[in-house]
Amino acid sequence: MQYPSLDAFLLDLPALAMPYQQQLSVHDNLFKVVREDGRTFFIAVENGLVQVHDESDVIPSCIISMKEQTILDVIAGKLNPVKALMFGGIRVQGDVKPLLRLCSLIGG
Question: Angle at Cα 8 formed by Cα 20 and Cα 92, nearest 5°?
Answer without folding.
Answer: 65
